[in-house]
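Figure 3 (text version): structure tokens given as input.
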């Protein structure tokens, strides 16, 4: 089956080392620009009601703004407590300067 990719945001709208929130079919998704690549995860922290796009991107890890739990944005894996559940991640493709996301997450938690 062919994976469906949906355009969400211009690549130029996310400077290196920054994050943005976007909508993917009604769901909030966080986008992170790390070393020239874009990574996408669910926006809501798995520990509570906080937006990871509003968190702090440190290298390839995002620190949640609420309780400072951390995740690797490339894999969605937890890297610091109090979080225990990984994030859903989405495949990303940049075509003609536009970020596209896979309609379905690569990992389902
Ligand atoms: S809500 Fe994110 S660490 Fe608690």
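Below: residues designed for each position.
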């Amino acid at each position: 089956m062919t994976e469906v990719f949906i355009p969400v945001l211009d690549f130029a709208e996310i400077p290196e080392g920054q994050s943005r929130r976007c909508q993917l079919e009604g769901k909030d998704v966080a986008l992170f620009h790390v070393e020239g690549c874009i990574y996408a995860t669910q926006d809501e922290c798995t520990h509570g009601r906080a937006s990871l796009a509003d968190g702090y991107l440190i290298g390839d890890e995002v620190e949640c703004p609420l309780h400072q739990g951390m995740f690797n944005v490339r894999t969605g894996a937890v890297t610091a407590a109090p979080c225990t559940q990984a994030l859903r991640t989405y495949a990303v493709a940049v075509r003609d300067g536009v970020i596209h996301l896979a309609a379905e997450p690569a990992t389902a938690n």
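The chain has one domain: 5-102.
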